[in-house]
Amino acid sequence: MKATFPFFGYDTHALRNFVEDLGAEVVLPPKTSKRTMEIGVERSPELICLPFKITLGNFIEALDRGADTVFMAAGARKCRFGYYHFLQELALKRRGKEYRLVPVSQYSPFEFVFRLMPSVFGVSPTRVIWALYMMFERSLLTQQLRQMLNRKRAVDFGGAEKLEKEALRLVKGARNLSDIRRVRRRLKGMTGLNGQRPEVRVGLVGEIYFMIEQYANQEIEKELARLGAEVLFERSLFHHLMHLLHIDRGSYRSRRLAKRYLRECPGGEAMRTVGEAIYFVEKLGVDGIVHIFPFTCMPENIALEGLHRLSEDTGVPVLSLSFDEHTSRTGILTRLEAFVDLVRRRKRSLEAQAS
Ligand code: SF4
Predict the structure, then answer these.
(1) Is any atom of ligand 1 closer than 6 Å to the C-beta of 203?
(2) What CA–CA distances, in Å, run from 89 to 28, 68, 109, 125?
(3) Fold (CATH) for 199-354
(4) What is the DSSP letter of 265?
(5) Torsion angle (degrees, nearest 10) of CA 49, 51, 54, 56
(6) Which of 40, 104, 162, 222 lies 20 to 30 Å (CA to CA) from residue 112?
(7) What are the DSSP calls for 21-60, one per residue?
(8) What is the number of other CB atoms lying within 10 angstroms of the CB of residue 259?
């Protein structure tokens, strides 16, 4: 089997190792690019959300590199995600090449561990559990890498850029548990801020694919840090895996908090988006919230209303950015610049009033 799956930001290597730990060869798609998006857009329904188009582009590029088995997350979430894999399978079949698409239902951990993975890879459930455990460890490491880079970039952008390559090399090279622990310690040592603190901190919330895949979100964490804002986030592959196993405390907390503005879950990750924003504002004291989501994403458009009410109630600025294949990078950068400027001036004026 030559397996492939969508490119998933820094977490791509955690997914890759998971599949390799189950004994299959991985054929990765090239890093997501303008070409990936164009290929996906060409074969997608016009109004479907951007993650569908980009991941379809990933599959086509990987199949062209020799992959023969495509893994795609599946599962109903009261939104279009529930039928992504059916439509992608149709689009790929039209190309006339031999391949197999395996939908991986996200919401049945028992089925995943005891039936699907053992039957697809011909391995025991024990091996699946071990591979899963290693994926948890690796995705936690990736989350720490992102946090370290976000903190460092906000105070020393150039220094963080130099570090990124080396840090990424260490994370990718961690093959076993003792490697992972060693790299974790190295990452902590690399953060070294020499007592400097970022002037402002913003919380990043939104749809999960956009929270993780840097090409999709136009490297928003990096761009905010370039402007001097440290980005706090909670959505990551690690937390998503915990959530799927029903052991993510953050997910329960977000659902409880979000009820203030959303009486019911409208699907997708709307409850988490609103709940995380409330947590960032009220518990972590961030200076602003940046909300990112694909244009036409119904759940996140509903979450938007909750975020506006949060902003009215607390005075904390919220910037909502929706993305599609036509979104201009210059437009995004201009809006980020204006937003960070606003957040910075508001913070200074609050500090002046308090002193
Ligand atoms: S959450 Fe939004 S972007 Fe994701 S599949 Fe559902 S509608 Fe599309």
Answers:
(1) no
(2) 18, 13, 23, 27
(3) Rossmann fold (3.40.50)
(4) -
(5) -90
(6) 40
(7) HTT-EE-PPPPP-HHHHHHHHHTS-TTS-HHHHHHHHHHH
(8) 14
Q: In the numeric block, which tokens belong to residue 337?
A: 């610049």
DSSP type of residue 264: S
Q: Is the CB of 291 under 6 A from ligand 1?
A: no
Give pLDDT tens digits for 115-170.
Answer: 999 999 999 999 999 999 999 999 999 999 999 999 999 999 998 998 999 999 99
Distances (CA, A) of 132 to 44, 46, 181, 256: 32, 36, 17, 28
Enumerate the CATH 3.40.50.11900 domain ranges in the chain, comma separated. 199-354
What are the contacts of 29-33 at 24+ separation with CB within 8 A? Answer: 29/4, 29/58, 29/59, 29/61, 29/62, 29/65, 30/61, 30/65, 31/7, 31/215, 32/7, 32/57, 32/58, 32/213, 32/215, 32/216, 33/215
**Substitution candidate for ligand 1 out of 300, 301, 302 with most atoms within 8 A of CB:** 300
What tokens were used for 187? 């990452």
Kindly state the tokens that stand for 247: 């052991």
Question: What is the C-alpha separation between 18 and 128, in angstroms, rounded?
Answer: 9
* Pocket perturbation via mutation, ligand 1, pick of 106, 207, 272 by most ligand atoms within 8 A of CB: 207
Interval between CA 48 and ligand 1 midpoint (Å): 9
DSSP code per residue over 107-157: T-HHHIIIIIHHHHHT--HHHHHHHHHHHHHHHHHHHHHHHHHHHHHHH-H
Region label for 184, one of left (φ > 0), alpha (ψ between -120 and 50) or beta (otherwise): alpha
Residues 6+ apart with CB under 8 A from 127: 21, 22
For residue range 166-192, list pLDDT tens digits in order: 999 999 999 899 999 999 998 888 777
Distance CA 23, CA 1 (A): 9
How much is the pTM?
0.94
